[in-house]
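Narrative progress, year one. The postdoctoral researcher (J.K.) led the effort to move from monomer predictions toward full complexes, under supervision of the PI. The following entry was the first complex the group processed end to end, covering 518 residues in total.
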Amino acid sequence: MRDNLTIVKVGGNVVEEEASLKSLLKDFSRIAGNKILVHGGGKTATILSEKLGIEAKKVDGRRITDAETLKVVTMVYAGLVNKNIVAGLQALGNNAIGLTGADLDMITAIKRPVKEIDYGYVGDIKTVNFQALNELIEEGAIPVMAPITHDGHGQLLNTNADTIASEIAVAMSREYEVRLIFCFEKSGVLMNEADEHSKISEINPELFEQLKSDGIVSGGMIPKLSDGFAALHRGVKVVVITNPAGISEGLRGTRLVLE
Amino acid sequence: MRDNLTIVKVGGNVVEEEASLKSLLKDFSRIAGNKILVHGGGKTATILSEKLGIEAKKVDGRRITDAETLKVVTMVYAGLVNKNIVAGLQALGNNAIGLTGADLDMITAIKRPVKEIDYGYVGDIKTVNFQALNELIEEGAIPVMAPITHDGHGQLLNTNADTIASEIAVAMSREYEVRLIFCFEKSGVLMNEADEHSKISEINPELFEQLKSDGIVSGGMIPKLSDGFAALHRGVKVVVITNPAGISEGLRGTRLVLE
């Protein structure tokens, strides 16, 4: 029987406010067995950019990463957010190690080619280093991944954290039964955004299409769910969207299913 | 026979200007065998602090680290500087991994007690995790250490990079013949700061006392040399102060000796 591996992606307010981060780390530390945490940090990056007078540009919810913005996200994601998470997990007895794609050549990416939009220093994932991640996990370490990758030629790149979580989940499915959890503020995908009780318990591709055309699923949730379905198609066992409480309480939330 | 391990500490302009960093990384990548890089980044942190309107405070050349400054140094040291070094080394075929003291619990520290001066979030080193560092080295990884430690209770701390290099050198001397290289802009310790040809080839403790009382060695060089002598007393084989060229050219520079 293959070992389990739980990959939790946290973003939004969960990771960027001290109280909710502490609570998240407690929930995460209670997960038994092998695990990986992938985090964002976009709001803190936006605030720092503003303080530095760098204009934050977005197209369709995706950040445009110019040279100055790349410096900001490298500082915020790989430095401030990542190391505070690592120190917080260490305090809870979880042997965390903070990583970007550059460290041990974990994730290489290609600078996104300029078509209609020039995204700047944004990286589309090329390879995930299964062996290096697996060695760390086998030694009992808990990788904490910041959404920064590299091109192998010395250039750091900004890569979407949801995509990093999905690609790691797919790569690790070679040897593990992988559960991929997208963790954010809400208890799951809601029929009515204002009503936490309107959570949808399961979404299959057909329902996904309907929810999109009804405008119930929109914005950043669309690529998140697309990544989730793609991960299921490529060998990931379980994909769930939930809040921190949902992690520790037997994976309540919205589950993605293929049929 | 025991394996060699070379520990290079780089600071000052060497690591913070793009051209000199590239050159340093080339020199470092040519070092054969096991190696560790320890870096600073104080100037970049000072510039970022100024941009953010945070006053940079120093007493006797040591930075006072208030809560806002701790955020800045965590972003600059552990994020911007560390990850650019790691990506640069990966491009040169060196399998670098960037670390702070929090990652894998590498270095724990105690927040410096307040006596005459309150240094703020400054950490004095308590433990170096020999086993975790050694496992990475045995797997062929090249640790790149940022001068950030943690207290084991979730608090990150700012720790002097020279001291981190010395303490790692001492800890690794349990199993390795350790060469500790303090790398900066000048070719070594100079009798006359303006004359690169006035390099002192060897300094013993007696000469060190004389150089201090003559004012030839002053400022940040005093704790650097003190750390170096302490490291020799505690089992480190070689301590050299040199510039990047000195690393690749058979360790030219100023060598510290005990007799």
